[in-house]
Structures
1.
Amino acid sequence: MTRRLFHLERDGVALLIAREGAALPHVLHWGGALGADIAPDAIAAALSRQTPPGTLDAAWQLSLSPQEGDGWSGRPGMQLRRRGIVHHPRWVVTADEASRERFTVEARDEASGLLLTVSIGIEAGGVVWVEQALAHQGTPEADAIDIDWFEASLPVPSTTDSLLTFDGRWAREKRPVVTAMPAGATVRQTRRGRPGHDSPIAAIASIGEPRWRSGELWGVHLAWSSDLTMRVDRVTDALTLIGAGELLRPGEIRLAPGEAYRAPRTAFVHSSEGLDGFAERVHTWLRARSQHPASPRPLVLNTWEAVYFDHDAARLTALAERAADVGIERFVLDDGWFLGRRDDSTSLGDWVVDQGVWPDGLAPLADRVHRLGMQFGLWFEPEMVSLDSDVARAHPDWLLHDAGHLDHDRSLSWRQQYVLDLANPAAYAHVLGQIDALVRELRIDFIKWDHNRDLVESVHAGRPGGHAQMSAVYALMRELKTRHPALEIESCSSGGARTDLGILEVADRVWASDSNDPVERQDIQRWTGLLLPPELVGAHVGPTTSHSSGRTTALSYRMATSLMGSAGFEWDILSCDADETAAITRFAALYKELRPVLHGGTVVHPEVRDPAWRITAFVGASAAVIVAATVASLEDARAERLRIPGLSGDRRYRVRVRREIGGPQYGWIAPEWFRDGEIELPGAVLAEVGLQLPTLWPLQAFVLHIEAL
Ligand code: GLA
């Protein structure tokens, strides 16, 4: 039997993929780099499979899409059905193609007529992407094949004993959940038609509990913005696998001859430097994309928490003028501007300006905003429809719901709204036409694209409709951007319910949460940052008292937290007093000064002991910014030292406390450097010895600016 070994390597990550005869290939290694001389024959011998007692006689290796016939008792890589009965494919490899960074294989299953294509590439930052597709190439008379699931998986060492996933809820997204590695086949699924506030977002297996700065870990993420499955298989007579795929409902994908299904791309990320190493790989990959925002991320003013539905042309124009005065660069008019939309019970789907509230339309405001030198942004919720809307009255059949269910039972409403079936070409054309007209007329620079409900029991053309809906949404976003190349889109979904790498193929920013409470935000932004670099994560200064938690916090704390993302305000700044307005103006200048480092540097989380600290560093080539915040009372009376990783050991640095946002409150004796506000030290001293932190009060924050001399 012929045996071939393919070695892929890039940016510190290696893959070893083996082919034996005509069998589907198997992965022998996914992890750290191996260098040039890997002794392929010896590796094959070193890793050849034994036939353990009590298993299949044949020494099958675990293929790229493992199945029962491989002696695999975990979850199969795919489940197919033919005439309703499970179909076990017998893959015969027909072609492969390999380079240093990509391996592609094709295999055929004679009985079904299916062609399987799997392509594995190591892309920028060392992120491994798996792309796979199934194409029905049978004769026209051949049976259609149902795909129940089709997932990508890679092996991880059996020494991984800890699993990090996530859950959360509205206004409290991305709560990390660490468990011991479960035995057997475990799936985590979302059935919301969006990843959801409790989205697992990633599944990360590690040796020991995951830490920020150290430890080896392997994670998986699915670039898909709808229902999904994350899977971990620890089976005692095989390897441990992690993987992911789209969650399909029975009958949703049925391939007739000539049809194909392309699975969403799956990212696999290895790090030998803890969670920061994981994030750095994904950030590097995102930043290397051609569509990654190249212009400085503008300071935003969003009107939602300033006025909610209370639109008044004169007041909003005055707000825009004040925004320009303090240094805002993008003014975003949120919900409430379209036909009859005075509260959230009505009008979604009618993307026409409400003449009652805006008698002259939005052009005067948009023009004023542009003349003030700002970008103009507008809120839409394109996938949704209110029953009380012209569009729903005219086209009740455009809803993505079982019509019978709607007539008899209104229980499927959510925030009093329903979902528009965008896979219906007429509904798609309606939404595209209305949005396109406004983007053109108002010269809209930015769309806040909202999505405020789960999809339940979606039906399109008599079939489960989740896949078709998501595909149509991506196409709609793409079409708008093709027509308006400078247009930017923010993905918002009741806050951060849709922040995956799939949506970021077409969106330029995400809204992390409807909570602007900076205490909550410290953690929400930190964990959103595991995948997304700060320039892609909207972080706004909300009102003094948060509408989602009732908590009152200092302006300096709110501004320090906003500085950690794509910054902005979501507050009626017309109501601010002179001191607050001056602080906001200073903050705007500080954000603009520091954003090259904040949005281009490496995100680093120095290890600290006290659980009340949240310390985040943004480290560039010759400068760094650190935001240090407390989310509760410090446990230690004398705060610990902060050791700052990532700087050059042999350079000298000036460390300055940037007091533009206002000083934090702290214990009555603060370290000398902190009181003076400035100190110079070598990088090695900052990294190895550190700085004595001040004993901050709870819910306080300060900003350090570190510059190489
Ligand atoms: C959602 C969004 C908010 C805001 C409102 C408007 O809740 O997450 O930011 O846009 O809708 O209705």
2.
Amino acid sequence: MQQLDIVKIRKDFPALDQKVFDRPLVYLDNAATSQKPKQVIDAISNYYSTINSNVHRGVHHLSQQATEAFEHTREHIQKYINAQNSHEIIITKGATDSINLMAYSFGKKYLQLDDEVIISALEHHANIVPWQMICKELGAKLHVIPMNDEGELLLEKFEKMINQKTKIVAVGHVSNALGIINPVEEIIEIAHKHNIPVMIDGAQGIVHKKVDIQDLDCDFYCFSSHKFYGPMGVGILYGKEKYLEKMPPYQTGGEMIKKVTFKKTTFNDLPYKFETGTPNVADVIGFDAALNYIEGIGIENIEEYETELLQYATEKLKGIDGVKIYGEVPHKAGVISFNLKDIHPYDAGTIIDRFGIAVRTGNHCAQPIMDRLDIPGTIRASFAFYNTKDEVDRLAEALEKVKEMFG
Ligand code: PLP
């Protein structure tokens, strides 16, 4: 593994180089969104300054160049996750959009009255609500793999939940609220034994770990560009061709059609059947630059560095009297969720902010986890490869100050 040159890396991220309340910013809200390297910012600016035009429609030079750059990103994503075909890569607006596409399109094709969908107790609202809505609409049932007090999913219960009515399993790769890496390989294996497809919500997974879709053998995988050092407004849904081919369009309009008459419309081939209207071309091209950037550093190097940083931060925070960490299990990535004894997370977060440190407080769009743990929320520090041990020390100092202030 290669040692990362963090000083050099940080120079690539302009937003990290600023003061907040007169102190150098410590950005520990990466699970909400990551900062962007200047290579990404430049790629977006460059697109608008040079080849800005609509894609897939024009015969003119600019449109062809924009289309080429846009499709190049799709192929880049395909290679990055080792998908078999580029038409299995659907470009969406974000992970939430991808999951909505899944729930509505997969749901309309494969779910009927009394069928069952399985999610887990560790999901982000984005992987709960769309399934809840489609189940309600179609009279299907939503079941939840339970977790233990540490936040680990109970796989023995999962296998018992599966029956003839189960039509899909949709689980997160890594919990955004607790940082727990779910045993997705085992979940996929168990589901496949029963011929049930699996969708992985990889919004917090792909950012910390190498994802090889063919190794993982999941049937769908989705994520957002903006958590992965790319721009906002771009998401990915990978799906196996055998399912995508049969799924109906999620939205309709221009781009996704083959032929339209007032009587009838036929739909375009994959992946365009699922990509309606003008896409977010500039940001898709910006995401290509993000992938280049990550490949330049190496996701394995990132994973190793972040794992060490997380261990350091965990030990540091455990050394502070009154800190309670949630979800402290061996397999974790990028996140520490904790509370300070007798201090509401929101109050703590407000004071931590005054020290120039950005953490997230609250339920992290995962209210069922907070209900299960019987807490109003947590303070969440989430890490990226540009964070340092010094920044962890600054967080620890701020927590001591919060304790002092609350007596
Ligand atoms: N899934 C998980 C695990 C997440 O952490 C998030 C965002 O925090 C989402 C889905 C939704 O991502 P987005 O808001 O980019 O659509």
